[in-house]
Amino acid sequence: MAQDLGFQRDPKHWISHDSSLVTEEDMEIRRRIFWGCYTSDKLISLILGRPVYLFYDDAEVETTERLPDFPEMAPWLPAGVAAYDGRFADINPLPLVPCFKEQIRLSKIIEKMLSKLFSTRSNLEGLGRQACLDSLNFELCSWYEALPECAKWNKWEPPSTPLIPSVAALHLLFHSVRIALNFDHAASGHSGAMIDNARKDCVSSAQDITHISRKYRSQYGLLHSPLIMIYAVMQAARTLTLFGTAEEAQYLVHSLDECCAAWDLAEQARNKLTQI
């Protein structure tokens, strides 16, 4: 539907006969609508296992930029941030747009992963499949290392340090994707250096997801968690069930209990995980 409506075209081309009808702010908001559809498409594809519908190369929409915060938006700032108490007052500007731009970059890698490696018609086998897997892992690591400072997360920071929700969501997506990419390889039952590396990557990402979810839970609670939290906890739980300890996996399964009120998917995931 987004393509039928022409969202893949940059808004500056929508009304060419009278540009005064569309302000710069309007065009920027419309660009965000497309990129929001693009990134959501990748997350839904990961969860449902369906093909991606929106491709990066098919779009001519320019990269989104930060807009000034309008005074009339002030009453809405606490929305979506539980127990807002001004804890982010010293973080100016909040890294919402930088994190969104990084999510777009990460979504390009997800698109490649789903369309090349996990496509039902993929004919990659043996060394060819391993080469593709190595290339995607390299792209993920390069993306992670190139993150701007405002979008980075430090697992060793003090527990009292505020966890910015947009940063948490970005890193939950990254670690979920890394598990999704390597899990089948790690769980293949074979032995070897490459299999060991895949298992280490999966376990490392699962532990980071656990760390983020614990901190998010302590600061905001999990009752109104975003969808990426559900998917990340699912990926981490199945990883730690296979390669970690029962206690680690059980904590994540219990975390899903708190999310069931808002997400039916959390209840389904919890039931599936308890059967493993």
TrEMBL record:
Keywords: DNA-binding, Metal-binding, Nucleus, Transcription, Transcription regulation, Zinc
CDD domains: fungal_TF_MHR (cd12148)
Occurrences of domain Xylanolytic transcriptional activator regulatory (ranges): 1-138
GO MF term list: DNA binding; zinc ion binding
A matching Pfam family: Fungal_trans
GO BP annotations listed: DNA-templated transcription
Lineage top rank: taxon: Eukaryota
Protein name: Transcription factor
Organism: Colletotrichum chrysophilum
